[in-house]
Write a structure and sequence with these properties.
mainly alpha, two-stranded antiparallel sheet, two-stranded parallel sheet, 8 helices
């Protein structure tokens, strides 16, 4: 634990609460659009590992249609509305609830899939020493276009270097990244390829 961590949590509580109130009108509009385009449920809910690997329920706006015999891959299921929500990060707005609750932080390693926990090297597992974030160092340094190895290394780098100054820089750079709409997806993928653990080079 770093001296900054209690202040970081206090900032998350205030920002999460204010963010939910301020974005309520936007979230209402997005919710109606998602309901008309994707149907129910409006929210995407999935279990993700948080700090110390503790599992929590992540909430976001749905960006994909339900799978069926004609829509199997993520690329097939991702709608134009979903692409727009991802490009602008509007799909992430409900995640402010996770921040307020303490499941997540505004800044930190992105929460990935539970099944990846067994695939990380000890070095990469250190990403779970802090709360996962809505945005993070990896998200402003390539986002989904970077390799898994680099992405996870950046997560651990953040764990070691986290500070108020670092978080402010990442938040400002996140705004720039969203406006420029860079790194939204890896080449040939709707988002990013699945992590298999095969590229591990560190113990």
């Amino acid at each position: 634990m770093k001296p900054y961590d209690p202040l970081k949590r206090a900032i998350d509580v205030v920002a999460g609460c204010v963010g939910l109130v301020v974005t309520a009108p936007i979230q209402t509009i997005v919710a109606v659009a998602v309901l008309k385009t994707h149907g129910r449920p409006v929210l995407f809910r999935q279990l993700r590992p948080g700090k110390d690997g503790k599992v929590f329920e992540l909430v976001k706006f749905r960006t994909m249609l339900h799978p069926d015999e004609t829509r199997v891959s993520d690329a097939d299921r991702l709608t134009p509305l979903g692409k727009a929500l991802r490009a602008t990060s509007l799909d992430e707005l409900p995640t402010l609830w996770n921040v307020f609750r303490g499941d997540m932080s505004l800044v930190g390693p992105r929460p990935l899939l539970v099944e990846y926990l067994a695939l990380y090297s000890p070095h990469q597992s250190r990403r779970h020493e802090v709360r996962p974030g809505v945005t993070g160092l990896a998200q402003v340094n390539g986002r989904n276009e970077t390799t898994w190895e680099k992405r996870l290394d950046l997560d651990v780098e953040y764990v070691d270097s986290r500070s108020l100054v670092t978080d402010v820089k990442i938040l400002f750079k996140t705004v720039e990244t969203v406006f420029r709409r860079t790194g939204i997806s890896a080449e040939g993928e709707a988002t990013m390829s699945r992590f298999t653990g095969q590229s591990l080079t560190q113990d």
